[in-house]
Design goal:
- The complex is a heterodimer.
- By secondary structure, chain A is mainly beta.
- Helices cover 10% and strands 53% of the residues of chain A.
- Chain A has a 22-stranded antiparallel beta barrel. A five-stranded mixed β-sheet of chain A has the order 1-6-7-4-5. Chain A has a two-stranded antiparallel sheet with strand order 2-3.
- In chain A, strand 21 and strand 22 form a beta hairpin.
- The relative contact order of chain B is 0.12.
- The N terminus of chain B is likely disordered.
- The longest helix of chain B has 16 residues.
- Chain B is mainly beta.
- The N and C termini of chain B lie far apart (76 Å).
- Chain B contains two helices and 27 strands.
- In chain B, a hairpin with a 2-residue loop joins strand 4 and strand 5.
- The chains are: A mainly beta, B mainly beta.
- Chains A and B meet through helix 1, helix 6, strand 25, strand 31 and strand 32 of A and helix 1, strand 20, strand 21 and strand 25 of B.
Chain lengths: 669, 362
């Protein structure tokens, strides 16, 4: 097995990267020449074609210069099952700290897991107690696309959006008739996934029901190198125990279209996510009884939008119930309820200037076993925001955003943001765009930081600072849908009052000095057609020094933040056949800090994972069916994302899916 | 098909180019054969490794971090909650995974740890051929700890031969004659286990307790602490007469540390007891100090203040220097500071993550 364990060194990494980048451009340029100028329509068997982007559009419009990327339906279907963490690991340069047992957190641009907002409608689904979100519980199947914003968006998304934001996008079909998409997949280690999407409507009323059940025994084999066995030193074959996952998600949408500019939309999402807390290697070796974690979440968001007049408005409301029970012990309940109301108006003042302004109110009621009711029976938040977009001349655009949040008994800084975009070159085929975005950001300490037992500190300062994003994109496209997109970004994120729990005789949250995360991101993608074939390339690379600066301590890279991340993917479709391969490199990560210059730091080895898959689409009785097969970790790399937590080697998935359009079928009859 | 293969071939090559192999086996270091020095038992990061032993020769100033790894060629994979020296063996209580690790006094481990019969082990103490291990039990409720018990291990066979239920969160222990005194950390009682017939009895205490010191008359000083599950204003040192099995006095000390580490220690002739405190200020600040308890006058006086992330303290029986140790984070290396008996700071060194206890060896 040792030969299957791949080691990397930083120097060899740069050599590999050079090869990869050169190879990528060779591939792209060769393919452009090779592909003939034929048009073809690519139909995805398990993806319903959708027509409207809702929440993300505003974010893009009012944040000039921001970097926002999309994970599309094809990429979602390639991953087949599981949480959105799998998508981020494979298709973005974002580090996801994860074990194999259903616990994962996102770290965008070197920030912590509580520095990225996960947006469902107008709700940030991050836990109000912990501040972050377990991404493996956010099932990708339920969403049509993911939009990922890199860098600060606190002026748009509020507290915590420092490293970035992820928008869970549900598109609206305004279905006429019935459309049913069903899916079943099974995989190694007892993995099973059942999914259903049912759209019913008459073009005005629409009901969309999305359901997914995902289970996995997760009993994969691995080489246990941390047994503590002194009688038989070295790694021994072992089988992971105590890493079962059982997740159930259902989303119900009820929508009504009054007219082209007026609609009512609602979305109700219930998630019951259960998993065993994965045993680490030494616990696994002695067959320790695993603990379990059960999350129940109900999230709802309804909105009425009226754009019939020049002064347009939107009224939204939401309710969120989050409950977490550790090891079936009700005495350790962690629960919060929150109600949200958001109202905003937007208007085009002049041909080149428009604005949006509004207010968002949130009432939070925590029910956490370790909080005192006398300290926090409830908390209220009010956010006032204003955003404007100005386009003085063709190709030049500015945006300005302002947000002031008020939290009961807590001071929050005023948060502005400015952005600009300039089209250096734009014609029918080529577009070069320069971008700049500067913003302030902040994070209100979590409820735990402020109210946990007698350790929480209500006087903790909010984390705040400045983010800078500067980038350039080159885009080429032709009239048959081929495109090349290259993007480079420089970023700088400065966070003051970084909060960590520290031992001061007892464990308390403290505001430390500062964290500066900076780096370079490169993104490239290409879509190419040749005859009836379609290819798509993707390459991401990021270099991210993220350093903690603390008085009396060495300035040092944050733990579990790799300096280097890269991934690449290639998918190919020929008529009804589709194949893909992708790979991701995660650089070494420190797992401890040095208290002094002479201290030794411990790190985890870098690793490279590759995946591939095939899908075949067939039509039976004019309905679409698809068979798919994928293999993950095809080089069977033995690696650790977190120290002492085993990860699965090579594994396989088989899937079948169907899209049934009942209305279309009845018409033909 | 050829076109398909051509499309797939190049990306495969690209991905394969990422891969490389090297051999980073580290050369095995020479094992130490001297025991003289102080050994810091570093808990590390729960479930995240980093547990270690730091050896410090306070005469030559030689410091060896990762001493266990040096002696055994591999890391400690359990988080060491407590370590105990008995008959030239070191017994280390491991959490995650739960086990009892026995090593030689050189910290060389030749047998695997014992985990059967041990659920959330906390502390141990020995008499004759028996080792008594306090355990919280499976699935502790962290409120009243009804499932806690004392495991009795035969040292020769390494088998747990008995488990005696002692509800209330068994923690530190001390043996006087044929009685095992058990500090209860979740209920305000002091447990007494008869080692002759394993009968149990309890003495009501004004607060929950954590650890004992045995004086020269075989009476016990016990740390009385306030915890989240059982708050109390009567914190400090309790004096327990083992002849009468009675708490005779309580010497109040505000903020007596509730850490699960060496929070009380005595000098070599038991004239002084040192105690670690943590006090919350009105402005949410936290201050940590060390107090000296004069055993003769029964009074406290401040020994050290403004401590950074203290976890414990230990008095070197060889020279009565006081070692105060700790660390601000479980994911950062710890420190130990040495003070002489008069309270003068001598030096500060780094050690492994989260030092909890110190063993001194000749």
């Amino acid at each position: 097995m040792e030969s299957l364990y791949f080691h990397y060194t930083q120097s060899s990494f740069f050599e590999k990267m050079r090869i990869v980048i050169v190879s990528f451009f060779v591939l792209v340029s060769c393919s452009i020449k090779i592909f003939a100028q034929e048009n073809s329509t690519v139909q995805l068997p398990d993806t319903i074609l959708l027509d409207e982007v809702v929440k993300y559009g505003d974010c893009s419009k009012y944040q000039a210069g921001a970097k926002i990327e999309t994970i599309n339906a094809i990429q979602i279907s390639n991953v087949q099952a599981g949480g959105i963490d799998q998508l981020l690991m494979r298709y973005t340069p974002i580090y996801v700290k994860a074990d194999a047992g259903g616990l994962s957190s996102v770290h965008i641009r070197g920030t912590s897991s509580s520095h990225s907002n996960i947006m469902f409608g107008g709700i940030n689904i991050n836990s109000l107690t912990l501040g972050d979100c377990n991404l493996s519980n956010v099932t990708s199947f339920l969403f049509d696309e993911l939009h990922i914003q890199y860098g600060s968006s606190a002026t748009m998304n509020g507290s915590g959006a420092i490293g970035g934001a992820i928008y869970l996008d549900e598109k609206h079909l305004w279905t006429k008739g019935t459309k049913l998409a069903a899916k079943y997949s099974m995989g190694s280690f007892g993995e099973q996934s059942y999914g259903l999407k049912l759209h019913l409507g008459n073009g005005k009323w629409e009901s969309a029901t999305k359901f997914l059940k995902f289970t996995s025994n997760n009993n994969f084999s691995f080489i246990n190198t941390a047994t503590g066995d002194v009688e038989h030193k070295g790694g021994i074959p072992d089988v992971q125990e105590g890493a079962k996952i059982d997740n159930f998600n259902i989303i119900q949408q009820i929508n009504y279209l009054f007219g082209p500019n007026e609609s009512f939309k609602s979305s109700f999402w219930y998630a019951d996510s259960w998993h065993q807390v994965q045993l680490n290697m030494q616990e696994n070796h002695v067959h320790k009884t695993p603990k379990e974690l059960n999350d129940n979440n109900f999230r709802s968001w309804v909105e009425y939008k009226n754009g019939n007049r020049n002064l347009k408005y939107n009224i939204s409301a939401g309710y969120v119930h989050d409950k977490q029970i550790y090891d079936a012990d009700m005495s350790q309940k962690i629960q919060t309820d929150r109600g949200i109301i958001d109202a905003n108006v937007w208007q085009k003042l002049f041909e080149k200037l428009d604005y949006r302004t509004g207010a968002k109110f949130m009432h939070v009621v925590p029910d956490v076993y370790s909080y005192s009711d006398t300290v926090i029976p409830y908390e209220q938040h009010l956010e006032l925001y204003f955003a404007t977009n100005y386009q003085p001349v063709e190709g030049l655009r500015f945006s300005a955003n302002f947000r002031q949040q008020f939290v009961s008994n807590y001071d929050v800084p005023f948060t502005p943001a400015l952005g600009a975009e300039y089209s250096v070159l734009r014609n029918s085929s080529h577009h070069i765009l320069a971008k700049l975005n500067v913003s302030k950001h902040y994070r209100v300490p979590t409820l735990n930081d402020r109210f946990w037992g007698n350790q929480g500190n209500i006087d903790l300062k909010p984390e705040d600072g400045v983010g800078l994003d500067m980038g350039a994109t080159y885009r080429w496209n032709d009239d048959i849908g081929q495109s090349l997109n290259l993007q480079a970004n420089l970023f700088y994120i400065d966070i003051e009052n970084w909060i960590e729990w520290r031992n001061k005789g007892t464990w308390i949250p403290v505001s430390l000095g500062r964290v500066i995360s900076k780096g370079i991101e490169f993104h490239g993608d290409a879509k190419l057609k040749w005859g009836r074939s379609f290819s798509e390339f993707l390459l991401n690379y990021t270099f991210n020094p993220a350093e903690k600066i603390e008085t009396g301590k060495p300035t040092q890279q944050l733990i579990y933040i790799p300096m280097h991340m890269a991934n690449a993917s290639y998918s190919f479709q020929y008529e009804k056949f589709r194949a893909f391969i992708d790979g991701s490199f995660t650089g070494s990560r420190f797992n401890n800090y040095a208290a002094s210059e002479s201290s030794r730091r411990d790190d985890l080895d870098p690793y490279f994972l590759a995946n591939c898959g095939l899908a075949y689409q067939l039509s039976i009785m004019e309905q679409m069916f698809s068979l798919s097969f994928s293999a993950n970790n095809i080089f069977n790399v033995d690696y650790q994302n977190q120290k002492y937590y085993a990860m699965p080697g090579i594994n396989f998935k088989l899937g079948i899916s169907a899209v049934i359009d009942i209305k279309r079928k009845s018409k033909k009859k | 098909m050829k076109k398909l293969l051509r499309f797939l071939f190049v990306p495969m090559i690209v991905f394969a180019a990422f891969t490389a192999c090297d051999n980073d086996d580290e050369p095995e270091e020479e094992k130490a054969s001297e025991t003289f020095g102080a050994y810091f038992i570093n808990y590390g990061n729960f479930n995240g490794g980093l547990s270690s032993v730091t050896k410090y020769n306070y005469e030559t100033k030689e410091l060896v971090n990762d001493y266990y790894k040096q002696q055994n060629g591999q890391e400690l994979v359990s988080n060491i909650q407590y370590a105990y020296l008995y008959n030239d063996s070191v017994y280390m209580i491991g959490n995650s995974s739960d086990q009892l690790i026995e090593t030689s006094k050189y910290f060389v481990q030749t047998k695997n740890g014992i985990s059967e019969g041990l659920a959330n082990p906390r502390f141990c103490v020995a008499l004759g051929s028996k080792l008594y291990i306090s355990c919280w039990g499976e699935n502790p409720d962290y409120v009243t700890m009804p499932g806690s018990y004392i495991a009795v291990m035969d040292i020769k066979t390494g088998k747990i031969e008995n488990r005696i239920a002692m509800p209330g969160g068994t923690e530190g222990m001390a043996i006087v004659d044929d009685k095992l005194y058990v500090a209860m950390n979740y209920q305000p009682y002091l447990g007494i286990l008869s080692l002759s017939d394993y009968s149990t009895s309890y003495v009501k205490m004004p607060a929950v307790s954590s650890y004992f010191l045995k004086d020269q008359e075989n009476n016990l000083y016990v740390s009385l602490v306030s915890t989240y599950s059982c708050p109390s204003e009567t914190t400090g040192l309790g004096y327990f007469n083992t002849s009468k099995n009675k708490l005779e006095d309580v010497y109040l000390l505000n903020g007596m540390s509730s850490n699960y580490s060496s929070v009380i220690t005595a000098n070599s002739n038991f004239s002084k007891i040192y105690a670690l405190t943590t006090i919350y200020g009105e402005d949410w600040s936290v201050t940590s100090e060390v107090y000296t308890f004069d055993v003769a006058t029964k009074t406290f006086s401040q020994f050290a203040s403004n401590l950074v992330g203290p976890m414990g303290l230990a008095c070197n029986p060889d020279n009565n220097d006081l070692y105060i140790f700790g660390g601000e984070s479980v994911i950062e290396d710890g420190y130990f500071s040495i003070y002489n008996e008069d309270g003068h700071w001598a030096e500060t060194c780094t050690c492994g993550n989260s030092p909890y206890w110190v063993l001194f060896m000749d």
